[in-house]
Amino acid sequence: MPLVPLQADILGPAYRVETFSLPPDSEGPVVATLVKLEAAAPTGRAVLHVHGFADYFFHTEYAQWWADRGYTFYALDLRKYGRSLRPHQTPNYVADLHEYFGEIDLSWWRVTERDGHREVIVSGHSTGGLTMSLWADERRHPEIDAVVLNSPWFDMQGAAWLRSPATRVALERIGSSRPLQEIPRKISGVYGRSLHRLHGGEWDYDLDWKPLESRPVYVGWLRAIRQGHQRLHAGLSIPCPVLVLSSARSFFGDVDGEEAFTHDIVLDVEQIRRWASSVGRHVTSIAVEGAMHDIVLSRPAVRATAYDLLGRWLDAWVTPAG
């Protein structure tokens, strides 16, 4: 398997990055990218994190928080996302969430076998939260110490007909026959503007990799998501402690305003909380007042609250600090 040695990442010299090749698909060569931030001293503990849709890893504060607690932090840019996106590819597209298991497995081997970590926390945001829940349930690796989910996408938000049996049947049929048919949708860009520092937010990131207007959604990809939802709704059995963080409230509007900075304007938080208990037998669900969709990108006081809650949960159920 071709492997590019670890190099300095775009986030700075403390972050090391490696790109590894995956089996080609119908569009050609496929790669995934693993970013690593070392803890100050070896502890045998690590975090493996996966981003959401139309996203990539740039969350240095989140990574540093874990490193300060003694966890080496790994973030995976999945195929066709961020550092792994190539010009010949349809951005962010897969026809089955299991396709991602290939790069997650290879990253897992690097974290546990190559680098020797024996206590690993699995982390995922939004679509990554759904994907990592399915992966952790299916793989059941003994080194998985806990799962942390940041606003995981557990159901289809919107009108009830979107979740109806008739819609599911139509999605299956069209997704099988015309998977790359684009689904028309209106993207206001409010969420992106609430994040990026050039548009009123706090964060600086690559707008080619995380566009303000998100990415096109294709029928085959949405079919894959709904199949993942079905599996989760049937009940997973992740045996380790799971933390599900969400905002306290959702708001769906297309005008810039204070709500964009204090609500989840991407997903329905009531759905997240409804399905949280479907992940496993030991689940803690916490609503963070004033949080945005990506909780660790919320305003500073809200982030401080979220990190405090995360730390107390870790101390109580996973590994005490120290």
TrEMBL record:
<dbReference type="InterPro" id="IPR022742">
    <property type="entry name" value="Hydrolase_4"/>
</dbReference>
<dbReference type="GO" id="GO:0016787">
    <property type="term" value="F:hydrolase activity"/>
</dbReference>
<dbReference type="Pfam" id="PF12146">
    <property type="entry name" value="Hydrolase_4"/>
</dbReference>
<feature type="domain" description="Serine aminopeptidase S33">
    <location>
        <begin position="45"/>
        <end position="263"/>
    </location>
</feature>
<protein>
    <submittedName>
        <fullName>Lysophospholipase, alpha-beta hydrolase superfamily</fullName>
    </submittedName>
</protein>
<dbReference type="InterPro" id="IPR029058">
    <property type="entry name" value="AB_hydrolase_fold"/>
</dbReference>
<keyword id="KW-0378">Hydrolase</keyword>
